[in-house]
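Notes from hallway chat w/ T.B., transcribed later so I don't forget. T.B. wanted the structure written out for a chain they're using in a teaching module, and asked if we could keep both sequence and structure tokens in one place. Agreed to drop them here.
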Amino acid sequence: MDKKEFLLHSIIKAYIKHLEPIGSSQLKSMYDISYSPATIRGYFKKLGDEGYLAQEHISSGRTPTIEALKEYWAKRLNLKLENIDKRALEYFAKEVGVSVFIKKERNDVLEAIENIKDKNMLLIFSDIVITVKFSSALFRFMSDMIGLTLNDILKISKEVGAHDVYESLIMQIQNKDYEIFNYKNFLTLVSEYDYDEETIKDFLKGTLLDAMTDGLYFESIFPTEYMGVCHYCKVDGEEVKMLVVGQLAKDYEYFYKNINL
């Protein structure tokens, strides 16, 4: 890491910790940096010209820009999570100020379908049984699904508009396999940025998480100063998909350090 990158990472760490503009002398004392304040200010000027630092007025300290924070986390959050402690997850989500959505990875396979007197159908999976209203067209449609996984059927039923099947499966998963930690922080996000009803439902039902893979997500889904981090991992030994959502200036390194066993 060269001097410029080192100083940028240092000021980002300081800003995340204090959430206020950081001056050259302050940064030098915080991290016992050997460079002089004048040298640090020179690099601050270069970083500002490159769009990584902002300064409200000439006598104030600097703050990292949105772009600087995004690049910082992109380099640091390529994590290998082993097994997460669920109680620690709940505690540190609140302490750090992020929301966490976790969904168990299900491998249930549709094994059979039973018609109950032309009124209801039982969709018999390897681990669960779902009841939906009978129709001959739906019965034929679902018969073609035997042997597919629950996740595949969720995707197909949504795409073709088989709403009864889709909603019943989602309800089953929500009740047993989907949890949200620090819900209060999510409500703040929703109220401040005026998410529409459909997007809120996608969060609360887990359908947004279904469409994600490992990695970082920025403006395509979240407001400019927020991000989401999606992982495949284990929580208390169970395979899950996990989404961590919060402002870019939250201390994600501290969060992951404390939840990862």
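Follow-up for T.B.: The chain has a mean pLDDT of 91. Might be a good example for the class.
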